[in-house]
Write the structure tokens for this entry.
Amino acid sequence: MAISKAKKDTLVADLTALLNDAKLTAYARYQGLTVAELQELRKAAREAGVKIKVVKNRLVRVAMGEIAVYQDTDTTNLVGQLIYAISDSDEVAPAKILAEFSKTHPALELIGGFNDSGKAMGQSEITTLAAMPSKNELIAQVVAQLLSPATDTISGLSGGLSGIISGLEAKAA
């Protein structure tokens, strides 16, 4: 069933707003997924702050054409049935959500993406990005590295003190 011109204009306006604020947009082929599986993907994405959109690729191209950053972006990979994952707060989450979901649902195939500067990413780049730790995980790793010398010193001192105390108790007995 064809959709009206007004509905298309509304969809393009919504997509334009989403893409304009997006830090990363990842897309994947989803042919073969059931409606229940798509709902499961939407739920996982919602929990991660990622928006999932299933729209015609032509409408995505029109929306991208209205944003200066995306006007020269290569859109040749936008063919077939694609699902778009978009995040305005995390540079890794859309790719990570689609990649994690594709591990348990092989019908979903991560194809590519666009970053906030308009650069098109191929399948290898987006897969590598999906394998990276999230922003919060990276922060936790840095904090752990910064705290490790203090932790090592404290455990060394406490181990040494207990050894000295044990030695003194043995001499006193």
